[in-house]
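Sanity check

After download, print the first record. It should look like this:
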Amino acid sequence: MNTSRERSQQQRPKIWTRDFVLICLTNMFLFMGFQMTLPTLPLLVEDLGGSDQLIGFVIGIFTLSALVLRPIAGHALESRGRGIVYMIGLFIFVISVGSYAFIGSIFFLFAMRIVQGVGWGMSTTASGTIATDLIPPSRRGEGMGYFGLSGNLALAFGPSLGLFLAGTTTFKVLFLACGALGLMAFILSTQIHYKKVEKQEERATTVGLDIFEKTALKPAILMFFITATFGGIASFLPLYAQQKHIEGIEFYFFIYALFLLISRLFAGKIYDKRGHLYIYLPGAALITAAMILLSWLPSTTVMLVAAALYGLGFGSVQPALQAWSVEKAAPNRKGMANATLFSFFDLGVGVGAMIFGQLAGWFGYGSIYIAAAGSVAFSMIVYLFFFMSDRKATQKSA
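Expected structure tokens:
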């Protein structure tokens, strides 16, 4: 009995290799430095005299600059190698985030947000591709869920730590700490053994027009509608809670991260066994419910319930979409598949933040979350259209 169990475990492909542990730790430090800035940058903009609309543009310009870089990073991952792209991206991230400690004007903040977007676009496109390289294909959904945990652990403590430092020290100390965490990620990244570049004869094609991987478009489009909600939470929830005199905003991010962690324990395995149908619709429904609760927001309890629902929903949907995006991509197109997915991720956050900044100025913060709920509900309709189209295509080819 024990012998057969040991044999089956030996035959099962291993996820937790040395390099996979290192990429998870590197990702955790990178995301910790990033997550600490999410709820605190709006406070910095406000301190510099900026409006809600400016907050939206500060968030949006970062994601849009990352969006421009992702296709370039995707090509570089296949032509130049994983390591060089990852480490350059991490270095740029460290310099840009650390510079926030010395910012005295919104113009300079805008400029450095663009630079940070470049570093973020390169490093996160590379990290997802590196993780994909290291995870056995038969356990990709499960492995990407574990990889996502590294970012979720950062999310559990990053926003709360950022808000704590912003409230007890200075912005200078806060952003120097963020830069130091990015530096830790850079140091760890030098110890990873990266997949070697495979020379491709077809590389002389029109690279300039090759800005996405078509096999990843469907999950990427869905990701756009989901991450639009993220712009509303990251940019405006601290200000919204403050306006409604609701305490405990730092616990929102902790509860959100906790339920994200819980979702990782089962969502990836369900994806591997049953496919995205059993993940996407339930997860999107939970996110929609969370947005509706935030649009209401009568108390701290409701806010924390919304955090739990959002954590379960987003924690299930995001790794499933990432696994789906690389599932049918050719081996030499995994980098572009990740770049495509995260380009739409950035586009959703950026467009969402800019639109929500306008909505907040016109109709108040509550309108942000009504619009966000509509975005996710619409994505469910789009998903059903994709699912039925794929089903008909399969039946015709059978």
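If your output differs, re-run the checksum step. Summary of this record's structure: Residues 16-194+211-397 form a domain with the Growth Hormone; Chain: A; fold (CATH 1.20.1250.20).
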